[in-house]
Design goal:
The protein is built from 3 helices and 14 strands. The chain has 229 residues and is mainly beta. The protein has one domain: Alpha-Beta Plaits. The strands form 3 sheets. Strands 1, 2, 3, 4, 5, 6, 7, 10 and 11 form a 9-stranded mixed β-sheet that branches. Strands 8-9-12 form a 3-stranded antiparallel β-sheet. Strands 13-14 form a two-stranded antiparallel sheet. A hairpin with a 5-residue loop joins β13 and β14. The protein is globular. The N and C termini lie far apart (44 Å).
Length: 229
């Protein structure tokens, strides 16, 4: 694709939380990053309301290893408690993604310049991102460098298939769907020779409504309007 970007992202720890483990205050990471987590990384590197990021695939470069830590999260009523968070340790991924124009932002049709946005995104990748990049959680700092997807040796290059069961694919926000609701998407990823090819959000067949939500509203100068409580 003409507007595709490829980069490697790595860090000491990652936490792609399985939502089922949050109920008791614990956090257990998925074995691989979710579509939504990778999309958030790309948006931290470069994002504009004119475009929507589409993650094409991810390549797992290092062996999947986990480490549990005792954490004292701050409680809402004050004080803290002890919880166990299980992280991925010493991770590295190659990511390929591209962007499409947001059809629901017709007010930004004048900004639909593919060449401009691709050049800016490419420069942002070389600079390591416009904003801080995280591997699923704020405490998991990530580092970004440009790469050629498929280059180098990966830990699972010679594995035929590895199934991960049902996982969260991502969240569908009203700004990108045109619907006044927030949905969560599920899917069943399969890693082949170390690579997971993501299906597009609209191809997910397991979709559940989370809550009613209206899209963000902006004025003519693209400043977000906040409704009165």
């Amino acid at each position: 694709m003409r507007n595709a970007v490829e980069f490697t992202v790595y860090g000491d720890y990652a936490l792609f939380t399985d939502p089922l483990t949050k109920l008791g205050g614990e956090k257990l990471t998925y074995q691989v990053p979710t579509y939504q987590a990778l999309k958030g990384m790309v948006e931290s590197i470069y994002w504009k309301p004119t475009i929507m990021i589409v993650v094409d695939k991810v390549r797992i470069m290092k062996p999947i290893r986990m480490e549990s830590k005792g954490i004292r999260p701050i409680e809402y009523h004050g004080g803290n408690t002890l919880a166990n968070y299980t992280y991925l340790k010493d991770v590295e991924y190659q990511v390929q993604a591209h962007f499409v124009f947001n059809p629901h932002r017709k007010d930004l049709a004048h900004d639909r310049n593919e060449h401009k946005h691709h050049n800016m995104m490419t420069r942002a990748v070389k600079a390591g991102g416009r904003r801080d990049v995280f591997l699923g959680a704020r405490e998991c700092q990530a580092y970004v460098e440009p790469c050629t997807f498929g280059s180098g040796d990966g830990a699972y290059d010679h594995n035929e298939e590895l199934h991960f069961g049902t996982m969260v694919h991502g969240l569908s926000y009203p700004d990108e769907t045109g619907k006044d609701q927030l949905d969560v998407r599920l899917w069943r990823p399969v890693m082949k020779q170390g690579v997971i090819d993501f299906i597009h959000p609209e191809e997910c067949t397991i979709v559940r409504k989370v809550k009613e939500m209206e899209p963000k509203r902006f004025d003519e100068s693209n400043v977000r309007l906040v409704e009165d409580e």
